[in-house]
Amino acid sequence: MHPVIAKAPNGRPHPGFADSYAVTAEFYDVLQADRDEARVHHLYGRQVARARVGVLDIGAGTGRVTLMSLARSRVDVHAVEPARAMRTSLMTRLAALPARQRERVTVHSHALDEAPLSAVADVAVCHNTVACLPPAAREVLWPAIGKALVPGGSLFLQMPPALVPVRDVLRLLPEKRVGEHVYGGRLTMSAAGNRIRTRADYWVRGAQGVLREHTETFWMWPASRARIIDDLARHAFAPLPGQHDPGVLAVTLQPDR
Ligand SMILES: C[S@@+](CC[C@H](N)C(=O)[O-])C[C@H]1O[C@@H](n2cnc3c(N)ncnc32)[C@H](O)[C@@H]1O
Fold first, then answer.
1. What is the pTM assigned to this prediction?
2. Which of 47, 59, 94, 171 is least surrounded, with the fewest CB atoms within 10 Å of its CB?
3. pLDDT tens-digit profile of 159-215?
4. Does domain 24-160+223-253 have CATH number 3.10.20.90?
5. 86 pocket-lining for ligand 1 (C-beta < 6 Å)
6. Nearest CA to ligand 1 atom 27
7. Nearest C-alpha to atom 19 of ligand 1 is from which residue?
8. What is the CA radius of gyration of the chain?
């Protein structure tokens, strides 16, 4: 049997998205969900609660921002997630929701610039996603966000790292017990020219030792806050005053663009 290749609306296969996160999806929630759930409520909860048109979750992953948006707003939510493995976890989550919440959320299986979204939201959240996009992909993302937002809408985006690391940065994810097994992971970020190579190592331990190990590598592209602000300004986004978290950039789509 041949694998089915997902096609974009223009008939082209999605460029490399469908299979990314194939290893990571299994470990993502068990190792990172608790901490990240608290973080997304803290970073975007108030803004999402004020949405009156819709919420757009760009790079929804397994659904942390999507679920938070359904809980904290009353508007429709659009979750954009091109990677099949991440979308599978997202759909499983949505399937478990009460119908009245599930009916408010639409999942788009494309990159945002390939999803047919026009003026569907007044609040867009892009959490932990911009870092994964090369500059050329960021350039097509900004106008796509502008199209999906209504004039005066706001975008809250988690900033990518500003620079490549001078030496390897190691982040150990707290281990979690699941029945008789313990799940663990480690992220190693290293400089590779102007990119950051992020190697994710995962393991599952039983009483006798390590049962299995997996690795997946991601690339990240650093960008300074000033660079992102300039790029967004060319697409009619202006910084919103009064936002104090240094890790998040808040901008608004100028109504008179
Ligand atoms: C590191 S994950 C973060 C997922 C989620 N936001 C979270 O923090 O748990 C980045 C996600 O962005 C998605 N993505 C990458 N490029 C995208 C694009 N152009 N439009 C929408 N999603 C994209 C990837 O498939 C991936 O699931």
1. 0.93
2. 171
3. 999 999 999 999 999 999 999 999 999 999 999 999 999 999 999 999 999 999 999
4. no
5. yes
6. 61
7. 111
8. 19
CA of 126 to the centre of ligand 1 (A): 8
Whose CA is closest to 163, among 201, 114, 196?
196
Q: Residue 21: CB within 6 Å of ligand 1? A: yes
Does residue 111's CB lie within 6 angstroms of at least one atom of ligand 1? Answer: yes
CB of 82 closer than 6 A to ligand 1? yes
Q: 72: Cβ–Cβ under 8 A, 6 or more apart, which residues?
A: 41, 45, 48, 49
Quote the ligand 1 centre to 58 CA distance (angstroms): 7
Same fold, 24-160+223-253 and 169-220: no
| The Cα angle at residue 224 between residues 118 and 54, in degrees rounded to 5 | 25
Domain coordinates in residue numbering, the chain: 24-160+223-253, 169-220
Residue nearest to atom 22 of ligand 1 (CA): 59
CB-ligand 1 contact for 104 (6 Å cutoff)? no
Q: In the chain, what percentage of residues exceed pLDDT 90?
A: 87
CA of 129 to the centre of ligand 1 (A): 5
- Residue of minimum CA distance from atom 24 in ligand 1: 59
pLDDT digit string, tens, across residues 8-54: 444 344 445 667 899 999 999 999 988 899 999 999 999 999 999 99
CA-nearest residue for atom 11, ligand 1, is 59
